[in-house]
Amino acid sequence: MSDPIEIFFDGLARRGYEPILGHTVSDIQWEILDGEASDHWWVGIDRGKVKVRHGEAPARCLVRQERQTLVDTILGRNNPMSTLLRGQSGFSGEGEALVVFQRLFPDRAQTAQSEPVAQAEPAGR
Description:
Blueprint: H1 4-15, E1 25-34, E2 37-46, E3 49-54, E4 61-66, H2 67-74, H3 80-85, E5 89-93, H4 96-101, H5 108-114
Parallel strand pairs: 1-4
Antiparallel strand pairs: 1-2, 2-3, 4-5
């Protein structure tokens, strides 16, 4: 499995509990657009207990975005709230859970620190 979206949601499901979401009771449905196709992931949150399903399910919050936008967010290249403000993502329903959930995505500072720095080749080789 090398798909960043699957890795992200499967990792979230394996954790099972997220302290950041300890005061949240909600569910979020992602609709991920890829050309004419769409994919769906559902995340249920009950005071930090997290359940994840690949597929459609009713939810209090629906997030709709292009696949590449979500991949870039998962990889820390995009800030989730910035994508909403720029119109690259949209949501309907209750947004409170989404505001809290965004903290589970890596930020640019975290990913910049973890990316290897290219070493310059010494001159004359």
